[in-house]
Amino acid sequence: MYRRAYIFLIVATLCWGGNAVAGKLAIGHISPMLLTFWRWAFATVIIFAISIPDLRRDWPVIRLNLPLLAFLGLVGYVVFNAALYTAVNYTTAINVTVEQTLIPVLIFLFNFVLFRMKVSWLQIVGFALTLMGGLLTAAHGDLSTIVTLSVNFGDAVMMIAIVAYAVYTVALRFRPAISWRSLMAIPALFALLGSIPAAAWEYSADRMIWPDANGWIIAVYTAVFASLIAQVLYIRGVEEIGANRAGLFINLVPVFGTLLSVIVLGENLQAFHIVALVLALGGIAIAEWGKPAQR
């Protein structure tokens, strides 16, 4: 009955899972900040091309909410992706994808602290398991490295990306009543503008790598598949089965990311990766099952 929605959501999370792999493939072909810039340059052109009627209709509301929309674009799009593309230069794509299971934990924590959302003991247990999985991955299977603060630099940078996306997700509760096209277009524009200083810094630090043929392909992939197609399909899935049920499919991102890292990049799937995935996904499932009843 909901087969089409399931297909939409699976393809969306597959595209998102490939984002870390794309970042890893970009090494030596295009630098992280320049990849972030071109990703949002291409995405902004495409989304604006299909959003003009919506933007005209929504402009009065957009104008009143420009600071919030700018924040969404800068934090959720620029900081997250720039940190992710930097992180894969120092750690594996598998680590980067598995560590993203920490995002639901932080969303839960921020919502609890800021908005006093109701919480059950099963949710606490579930998110504790997910946290253990994420930390196990960041520590490369040796949790003692957390105590001694000797975590790999790339995994530490990925924590910045995770916090940024959690903040972005929580901030979405304040999104204005505009169409989904407008909600994608305006933050994408601010993401493009925000990525310019980052690219300029990269150039001034003599770290910029202008894209070769492979670099352009990777930039187009991140713009078309990871930015636009994935988001559109996710929105369609939400429309058909609701946000709560659709949200569970996001847990497939680390699964697909891990599989793609092994298949495409030839990275080694180690025992602690499997344990971390079981802990993280099992914890999220327990938390979802044990959530308080909604009135």
UniProtKB/TrEMBL annotation:
Keyword list, A-Z: Membrane, Transmembrane, Transmembrane helix
Subcellular location: Membrane
Transmembrane portions of the chain: 32-52, 64-87, 93-114, 121-140, 146-171, 183-201, 213-234, 246-265, 271-290
Cellular compartments per GO CC: membrane
EamA domain boundaries: 4-137, 153-286
Membrane topology: Multi-pass membrane protein
Keyword Transport carried by entry: no
Keyword Glycosyltransferase: no
Pfam families recorded: EamA
Similarity section: Belongs to the EamA transporter family.
Protein name: Drug/metabolite transporter (DMT)-like permease
Native species: Rhizobium soli
